[in-house]
Specification:
Elements: E1 3-10, H1 16-30, E2 35-41, E3 56-59, H2 70-87, E4 90-94, H3 97-103, E5 111-116, H4 121-124, H5 129-136, E6 142-145, H6 148-157, E7 163-165, E8 184-188, H7 197-208, E9 216-220, H8 226-235, E10 242-246, H9 253-258, E11 262-265, H10 274-281, E12 286-289, H11 293-298, E13 306-308, H12 313-324, H13 327-341, H14 346-361
Parallel strand pairs: 1-2, 1-4, 2-3, 4-5, 5-6, 6-7, 8-9, 8-11, 9-10, 11-12, 12-13
Helix pairs in contact: 1-14, 3-5, 7-12, 10-13
Length: 362
């Protein structure tokens, strides 16, 4: 069986790309594959995703991600070539356009390249990513995206003949579901500008005016936007109802989902956010902006949750108020969301990865 290598710019930071990488790596190693995870740089604040990894871990640079001098770059290239030679035949899964640009010229003939894009086409076309994908990814053996919609859009607009779609996996499957009786909306993610928690707070404030019961919005995460978001909640008149919970470890998130009734996601862009799939697995429906094919693969609007036009805070508030005001609607959508989330269970996603490897072996 050939080796499978996952390469990240930084493999050990607390983040969605890293979490998916370690989850898939551990799962495939558990199925008997030889798996390696490479971090090109060390993490500033390392997070251990797997207590007893069955895969091998490597860090190339001793420094955190950032500019690298020519001498350090040459030494790193030497380490990477030596590592690839030791690993032998197989595939290298490169988890971002930056990693593809960095590694493509270093791959030996017996290690084929797979690009794995964790964002959406909508995001890529607004950044340098689309140009990078268009320039480099046709040379890869396979280009993997988060949804069939995204794979089709990249095939058309980046002229890729080698697209494939694989969902991000849930790391586990809960045995219990939320009762959906708590008057609590959840917001999960880094408190960063792109996540637009200010819009979620504004929508929550507007929804509260339509719902007589006293609901709370719990924001789970940490980041540089915290002071501004506190001020925004105060200005919106809901400072007493917005609870900033700070960082909660992935292992403790089950309790948060069990105590929630609605998930709100107001990001400017998302690939296929794990928080939506996790909430769905606990039977918690989501209200989100319709920003990507990955989002649409997670939420079937009106059936498993609610999607509203990107940036339309008024529509978001109306959808949020509908769910806050109706336990029956929350339960209807939540039950359907959990059934839909079955397709993101780890075993099914690992089956997809093995189908990809079998396709490449033909």
């Amino acid at each position: 069986m050939s080796a499978l290598v996952f390469a990240c710019l930084d493999a050990d930071t607390l983040g969605g790309v890293q979490r998916v990488t370690h989850t898939v790596a551990q799962g495939l190693a558990g199925r008997g594959h030889e798996v390696h995870v490479i971090g090109l740089h060390r993490a500033r604040r390392p997070f251990r995703y797997v207590e007893r990894p069955r895969y091998r871990r490597h860090v190339i640079h001793r420094t955190t991600a950032g500019p690298v001098g020519r001498v350090a770059r040459r030494l790193a290239d030497r380490r990477l070539r030596a590592l690839f030679q030791r690993i032998g035949p197989g595939h290298v899964v490169m988890t971002s356009p930056a990693v593809v640009s960095r590694l493509l010229s270093l791959l030996p003939p017996d290690l084929s390249g797979i690009g794995h894009y964790h964002g959406s086409f909508e995001h890529a076309r607004g950044t340098w990513h689309l140009g990078s994908v268009r320039r480099d990814w046709w040379r890869l053996e396979q280009a993997v995206f988060l949804s069939e919609d995204d794979a089709g859009l990249f095939a058309e607009h980046a002229m890729l003949p080698n697209t494939w779609a694989l969902a991000n996996p849930l790391p586990g499957w809960p045995g219990r579901t939320a009762e959906l009786s708590a008057r609590r909306v959840l917001g999960v993610g880094r408190l960063a500008g792109v996540k637009r928690f200010d819009r979620l707070i504004s929508a929550f404030a507007a929804a509260c005016e339509r719902v007589p019961e006293p609901w709370e919005l719990h924001l789970i995460g940490e980041g540089e936007e915290l002071p501004r978001l506190r001020e925004h909640a105060k200005a919106a008149g809901v400072a007493g109802r917005v609870v900033f919970r700070g960082r909660v470890s992935p292992r403790r998130m089950a309790v948060e989902y069990l105590n929630g009734s609605v998930l709100g996601l107001a990001s400017e862009h998302e690939g296929a956010p794990l928080a939506v799939a996790e909430a769905a697995a606990f039977g918690v429906p989501a209200v989100a902006f319709d920003v990507s094919g990955g989002m649409r693969s997670l939420v079937a609007s009106g059936r498993t949750g609610m999607l509203v036009p990107p940036g339309d805070v008024a529509a978001f508030a109306a959808a949020l108020a509908d769910l806050m005001g109706s336990a029956g609607e929350r339960r209807r959508l939540g039950a359907a969301a959990r059934a839909h989330a079955e397709s993101f269970r780890l075993d099914q996603v690992l089956d997809g990865w093995e189908a990809l490897l079998a396709h490449l072996a033909r």
